[in-house]
Amino acid sequence: MKKLYVIRLTPEERQRLHDLVHKGRVAAHKRRNAQLLLWADESDDGPGLLDREVAERVGVTRQTVENVRRRCVLEGLDSVLVRRKRSRERSSVLDGEAEVRLVAIACSDPPEGCARWTLHLLADELERRRIVASVSHETVRRVLKKRRQTLAAQDVVHSAEGGRGLRVRDGAGAGRVHAAA
Questions:
Q1: CA–CA separation, 89 vs 111, rounded Å?
Q2: Average pLDDT over residues 85-114
Q3: ∠ CA 7-84-76 to the nearest 5 degrees?
């Protein structure tokens, strides 16, 4: 089957890619794509290897070789050497005001019959109060983790119960450390 996108590098482009491959510190994707293009080059100076041979030498799939060749032909050499920006934008379900209301709910008394707020209870409460149409408990967890300083209170119980074990360099225990009264 004939290749649809054929790589034919100029001597200047070959030299640029060769310098990238043999340079000390280069991003891995940039070095990989440069090496891939050098082996796929079908100009007079290039080896013009088959996609499967290039894929084996570089350590990628044949589809990756085809994708890099296509991008190089359609978008230019620089587009292959630079990572693409993420195309999808993610907007947060909870804006600043909703986050404040979530923290206020988390600091309030839990519902009747519950000892404390859970992430699922908080997500359900946000939906019940129509602060958001729907929200995942994972989103609630991320917001609360980000705002944990706000939620810190004196009555928080730590599992260490006031003492923490320490280790010295050789791995032996250094004893217990207790909070000063």
A1: 36
A2: 86
A3: 25
